[in-house]
Every structure is written in structure tokens, then in C-alpha cells.
Design brief:
Elements: H1 2-13, H2 29-44, E1 48-58, E2 63-65, E3 70-85, E4 92-97, E5 108-111, E6 125-127, E7 134-139, E8 152-154, H3 160-169, H4 196-209, E9 213-226, E10 234-243, H5 246-257, E11 262-264, H6 268-277, E12 282-283, E13 285-286, E14 296-298, E15 304-306, H7 310-316, E16 325-326, E17 330-331, H8 333-337, H9 340-343, H10 352-357, E18 360-366, H11 370-385, E19 390-396, E20 399-400, H12 417-422, H13 426-434, H14 443-453, H15 463-473, E21 480-481, H16 484-506, H17 525-546, H18 550-577, H19 584-605, H20 610-624, H21 646-669, E22 677-682, H22 686-702, E23 705-710, E24 720-725, E25 728-733, H23 740-765, H24 768-773, H25 776-804
Parallel strand pairs: 5-7, 11-19, 18-19, 20-21, 22-23
Antiparallel strand pairs: 1-2, 1-10, 3-4, 3-9, 5-8, 6-7, 10-12, 13-17, 14-15, 14-16, 22-25, 24-25
Helix pairs in contact: 5-6, 5-11, 13-14, 15-16, 15-18, 16-18, 16-20, 17-18, 17-19, 17-21, 18-19, 19-20, 21-22, 23-25
Length: 806
Amino acid sequence: EESGSTITRQLRRMGASLDWSRERFTMDEGLSNAVREVFVRLYEEGLIYRGKRLVNWDPVLHTAISDLEVISEEEQGHLWHFRYPLTDGTGHLVVATTRPETMLGDQAVAVHPEDERYKHLIGKTVTLPLVGREIPIIADAYVDPEFGTGCVKITPAHDFNDYEIGQRHNLPLLNIFTEDATINDQAPAAYRGLDRFAARKRIVADMEAAGLVEKIEDHKLMVPRGDRSGAIIEPYLTDQWYVAIESLAQPAIAAVEKGAIAFVPKNWENTYFEWMRNIQDWCISRQLWWGHRIPAWYDEAGNVYVGRSETEVREKYNLGDAPLRQDEDVLDTWFSSALWTFSTLGWPEKTPELEKFHPTSVLVTGFDIIFFWVARMIMMTLKFMDEVPFHQVYVHGLVRDAQGQKMSKSKGNVLDPLDIIDGIDLESLIKKRTFGLMQPQQAKKIEQQTRKEFPEGIPAYGADALRFTFASLAATGRDIRFDLQRCEGYRNFCNKLWNASRYVLMNTQGQDVGLDQHAPVELSVADRWILSRLQRVEKEVARHIEQYRFDLMAQTLYEFTWEAFCDWYLELSKPILNDPNASEAQQRGTRRTLVRTLDALLRLLHPTIPFITEEIWQQIRPLSGAEEETIMLAPFPEADESLIDEAAEAEITWLQQFIVGVRRIRAEMNIAPGKPLPVLLTHLNDTDRQYLADNAAFLKTLARLERITVLDSEQDAPESAVALVGEMKVLIPMAGLIDKTAELTRLKKEIDKLEKKRQQLEKKLGNENFIRRAPAEVVEKEKKKLEDVQTALNNLETQYAKIQAL
């Protein structure tokens, strides 16, 4: 209940528009019925069975875990070379092991059948040291003659490879561990009750005392650890329940091969096929206190009975009042999750919901659970519904921390989305990250890292900024390195949209916005341009959504909102709205365009930033003539090809190049932004002259121009800074605009400062110790700094040369 409410609270606060009346939990009674039904049917078909096999055992959590819950990492260890005496007294074999404690359960020594060193010993026996039991020398092609001595101890109950060898050679299974990974009563008395690592030390000491240690080598090995507890996993022999999976896997492979289900991005299909074509029977029992109880009962003789309930079992097997005990294990959580698409809709009953909603359209999931969940859903749904569960699988990346590490409670690097939305102070963040750790010794390290990364805590960014950040980073299938600076940038974007809407409302509320279809409307070239650009954006956004490129969708909307709408169109609307000589039709046209563009933009942005768009849209709704009560019910914009106006786009592009050219000269020459400038033009063609005549008012306002003069020849121009618009030259005379000496002095200081920084960075990057010892990302960061400094230096030196030439 607590975890579920945390998840739903986060979803609600993040703006998930879900039908909350359909919320389901895997332990709900309806879903529990479906779980029992599937178990019983599979058991009756012989596809669920109980068997004694090796599992990955977590000795801290006391449960079996799947291969995918095991994290194997390279660690430094040792390779012990022990002498196993030949029973006939003629010598000994030297075996190499990384786990001396398991020798107590050895059942054989294996050599390669073609290894000339040992061929003559195959079929003989050795005496297992410390135990005194005779075990055979066997031949098996699995043995690598080049590794160690070429002799391998075989412990079928405590190693997966040894188990397979044991099955081939009919070796007994001797389990020497308890559930806690301490030595059990099957081992000699001297070692019983010892923890596995304490037993290792004592066994090595006893072997040394007996003169049976040949040598000990340092050795790197892959150590398997449980992803939740961090404990070293033991291959452990237990009775578990399994699904015989092969017959379920084949139809699931075919469904993807034939295109009934498509992965996005497509490359994840290869991962799916790799897992499915090498699939092993699924261990579905878990030794946990929470979950779906396995619907199996045992009588006093140990016979097992499977049914949907104890009542059904008693009736079906005529057990009367005989004492029965239900299996204490629970089902792997992925067993019930595998039934999700149909169990949530009322199966096994034939409900209207099942008829209407199944199969679903798309599953959105992470790549890390393609096998845990996606593959198993496909297998189970094909088995019990005879149809696919969904038609597309959209695989998104994992949200990692800024260093690229997977977020996990044990690492203390998890970011709660609510803390990004609402903000959190440093001390509360530390408390949250260090509470309830499975490895409390990590708390100090986590606190230090948190203080370093968030010295002021986390400021409040709001849900919209967080959502836009996720969308912008959602490149198909790639992991997301989550950086709060991106959140800050998109919070600024939301503020920009809010301020733009205030400008629109200030200039349209209480005004004629052209709702009367009979009132004349005259659109300026700027109006036609923004409407044309809007159609192109609507087409792009629709394409990006269809292709699951939410990052490109976000980029398209960001650039259109910030640059086209806010930076250009709003500025281009001012000369018309503020011109006392503008006609009513012109002003009506611009006001209507402001409203319609903002309205469409809000609807395009709403799926990504729902809160601010709803708030603004409610204010713009009376002006746009929308009848819907909420933006959620308003239609998503669709492009109108008839509004694409290439002539208007070409004209505004010319205007933008003119204005940007003047602004660039201002910046390069350090001329005050508000100072009106005289501009001279040369090399005009007929189109340039027409654009100039039509847009002189825009140019003077947006570029802050004192006057515009067209020259017949460039030779008539004084010493000037130049910008190009096509072949037309825009000249700004420098006389009186800058103090040449002062500006050269200023630039020289900047150049000297950057040159010093460049030398420091080059020296640092030339230091072999730094390159060798520093993390790769730190080295890359320094290289990027050097690149940026060099670019800035080049720009300043170019500018210095230009001014010196004046």
C-alpha cells in the first residue's frame, strides 16, 4: 500500500493523464484468480513441474533469484592449487580452485580426455583431503587443459558447470551449505556451522598443515552478487517450481519474426531473439514472505496436489479431512506481471473490457526488463489469449545519474522526481538517501557524495520542466544522463512561454481578434510567415511522435517557441500593433495570428508540459473561440498545407539575415545595443529592393537603425564593418561609433587572458600522468575547455585584425 501510493503520487504529480478508476495491483483478488488459473492449467499440461536443481541463492535474502538479478563484476581474488592424493599411493593430482570451501562437496576430479598427462589415470580415484572420501577421476571435454593444471575439482551441488558435468557422469549431489551459506552437517564436524568464508580460511590452513598446498596465486575472477543485497551468490541445490518454457518460447519468437510485434528501436529485437533462442526453464518459486502463494498442497506423505483452492484439491483428489499443508513459497513477481495485459481486463472471464481493449497498442518499457517482463508477457498472452499482447514495444533508456551510473538505493544516487518538482534542502536529501540502506556502511560515502553534488540541495523546477527534460533526452533506446542543469534550462523555457503568453493576452484581451468571420482581415508578411512555419512544425511533431522520437519533438517545439515565436514573431508584431497608421484589418490580422499561433502551440506542447499549457489555454480560450472545457479535450493540431507560404518564408529569412548581421557587428565592435546606427546598402537586386521597401519599418525597429541609405557603388562608402545578405552588402560606417584605441586595448587584454588559459590547458593535457590517472570524462572535459578557448581566441584575434584595419 505504501509503495503503491508513492508510485501513484509521483505519477499524479508528474501529470500522467490516466484513468485512475482502472488502477490495478498484482495482488488484487481478480488478478490473483488469474494467477492461480494460469498455474493450474500449465501444471495440468505438464508445463509446470517441481524439481531439485541448482539456483542462484542469495544467502542474505534467503531466496532464489534469477540470472538477470545477478550482477557479475571482476574482483581480485586467489587461485589455490591443492594436492589430491591418488588412492593407490602412487602420487597426487594438483587441482586449482577459487573456492576452497566447496571442496568438502567434491564428487570427482575431471581431466580432458585427450590430455596425455592424465590419460592413464582416468577411472582411478583420489582421496578427498580433509574428508577422506574416495572420488573418481573422470574425463570430460569441458575441461580446459591450458587452465591451471588441467585438473578440475567437480562439485555438482555448488557450481552450475559442475552440475552439468555431474549429470553427464551420474555423480551424486552433495549439498554442504545451509540457507545462510554456513557449512551444514554433511561436512566433517570441524567445519560445521562456519560461515563459508571462515570455512575457506580454516580449510586453506588445514591443507597447508597437511602439506597439500602446491601454491597460491593472485587471480582476477568474476564474482556474482545479488543486485538487491550485494551478497555473493551461491549456486545452491533446492527444490523449486519451474515452467518448462521451450514450447511457450517458439510462438513468441515467431510473433516478432513475422512482424506481429515490432520493437522500437528495432535493434532490441536482436536482444530479444538472443535471450529467447537460448532460454532455460523458468524458476518461478521464491522464498519470500510476500507474493502469490503457490497453489499446491502436501499431505503427510509428501504427495503434492495442485488446484485453485484447498477445497478444490480435496474434492478433486478425494482427500476428505486429511491434513494438508500449502506450499510456503511464493511465485516470482514476474509470473503475475506476465499476465498483465489480460488479467487486468477480467480474464479468465470473457469481459467487455477484454473484448474492447485487448490486444493493446504499445508497451513502453526499459531495455533491462525485456526478458523479465516483455518476453514473458508475449509467451503467456499467446498461450492463454491466442493473440499478441501488444503490437509495438517502445524501449526507452534508463535514467542514470550525471556520471552515467545506474540509479539505485544502494548507491545512494536516486533522485525522487517529487524532489525535483518541489525542491528539497540538503539535510533532508541526505536523510532520504541514507535511510533504510541494506548496506548501512555505505551511508557515510553517500552523504559525502550528496554534499559534493548538491551543496545547496535541489531547487524547485516544477513538473513541466522535469517532463520537458525527459522528453528532450529521450533519444531512442539510449540511456539518459540526468543533469539538473537541463532542468533549469527547461524551467527557463516554461518562463519564456509564460511571458510570451502575457504579451499576447495584453495585446488581445478586450480587442477585436477576428472571431467575427465577416470582419476583414489583412495578414502581414510576418503573420503569413509564422503561420507557415507553424504548419511545418505541426507536420514535424506528428512525424516525430509517430516514430517515437520524443527528443526531436521536444527540440522542434523548443526552437519554434523560443526562436520563431518569441524572439522573432512577437517582435515583428509590435510595429503593426503600435503603428497608429495601421488599418483595423491589419491589426485584427496580427491579433488573430497571435492568438491562433499561441493556441496551436499550447496544444502541441500540452502532452509534454501539461500544467502550464492548461493554465495559459484557459485564458486564451475565449479569444480562440474554443468550445472544449479543457485543453485535454481540444484536438491535436494538424497541418494545413494551404497555409504554407514559401514567399513569406523567403522574405522573413532575408529580414532575419539583415537584422542578425547588424546585431553581430554591434556585438563584435562592442557598440551599445540601443545606439541607433546608420546603414549603407550596396549590390542590391530587384528582390532586395522590394523587400527593403516592404520591410523598412521592421528593420528600423528591430535592428535599431537611424537611417538606411542605398549606394550606387561600394566605392562611395567610408570605412565600414560589413555583413552579407545574399549578395547584398550591409555596411555600418565605423567613424565616431567606437574608440579604436580603447577597443584594441580591451581586445588585447581579453586575448592575453585567453592565451594564458590556453597554455595552462595545453600543459595539463600534455602531462602523461594526468591523462593516465584522471577519469576519461575529466580528460574529455579539459579537452572541450581547450577547444572552446581556442575558438574564442580565434574570434577575438579576427576582430582585433578587423578593427586595426579601420
